[in-house]
Amino acid sequence: MRHPALLALCLGTVALTACQKHSDADVNRAIKSVNVIDESNLSDIMLTVADPNEAAAYFLKSSTENPDRIDLRRGLAKSLVRANRPAEAAKVWAAVVTMPEAGPEDRVEYAEALIRSNEWKLAEAELNKVPPTHETFLRYRLEAMVADSNRNWKKADSFYEIATGLTTKPAGVYNNWGFSKLTRGDFTSAERLFLDALTYDPGMFTAKNNLVLSRGAQRKYDLPVIQITQVERAQLLHTMGLAAVKNGDVRIGKGLLQEAVDTHPQHFDEAVRALAALDNNVTN
User: Could you give the CA distance from residue 15 to residue 139 in angstroms, rounded to a whole number?
Assistant: First the structure.
């Protein structure tokens, strides 16, 4: 004899159990989704504003726990570069480029880490593996630097020019390009490129200093009209004074060094030492 009430109760229990399992699965999926979002946000923070060594420790732990996650490996490599540990970063990138999800940009990042580690030939070999269709700012900036290291000036100039057209912030490229021209002895072109760099980043002191070096090499001993602080003015006068001395214009050099000492708001020890050394040489 059947018991409808009992059967209904049993069916209700089964339905409730199934519903409960379905509900638990939905909750777990939702929690996992939230965790992924939180983790993604944390990864972004680690890659931008966090202390580089702390970020590297975070990504090392996370990638060790999740060895198949290429995003965590990338985060570790980028953090190591930020922490000025390029040799370690290169080892991580070497593993990343072998993973199934790896793309051309991973190999470009690997080449950058190799360049930072002074492994120019290895970097060149990795860049040669990047397909020509992968046209990015970083790729061409690195190609230019490698061409520079090989003293292939025509190719370097071509790559620098392409790189400047692929970014809205080309100051660093113009500065590197200018320094390349400076080392070749093309001081006029170098001066123009450093001015281009300062057009995009008026606060870049490296470009300011390089600009003064390029002008000093042409025996232009007046400071260019650029945005500088009082401390920077003293430092640039110091650079120009040393350039003048190197050119054999010792009297002008001493005058520039003295002006640097007088301009600096605090004691300018480097300029004082340079003046003392010049006075000792004259005395001796």
Answer: 59
